[in-house]
């Protein structure tokens, strides 16, 4: 199933949208790990790795453009979690770039995917356990924000599909 076809669902709110993204990328990382253990072919590995990179790139973009901006406003004076998230996104983007620019034959390819998975897992845990609860209780209009984020996500996925 392609990213675009999975993205037609409409989230109830921004936090639910991001949580669904987290679940989806965990599933993709698990599939990649299973592919490694099954000694899957390079074409399969690259296709799945690029899907992971696409999903993470789109997710990070909508978080940075919408969610983190709203979080900074709602948590004024207590923005440490957002600052850390921004730095973690920068690290993830660097790994994504390395993955996209390489191929499964690269001896570090699988290691990069593993490190990215571990990095994303830690980041997701911080968001879901700390940032999301703070924002949910802050009065943030998560429904309106979710609609804007979903629309931007769909636009980004369409742009990326057109660039392929």
From TrEMBL:
The lineage of its organism: Bacteria, Pseudomonadati, Pseudomonadota, Betaproteobacteria, Burkholderiales. InterPro entries: Hemerythrin-like. Pfam families: Hemerythrin. It comes from the Bacteria. This is Hemerythrin superfamily protein. Residues 14-135 form the Hemerythrin-like domain. It comes from Roseateles saccharophilus.
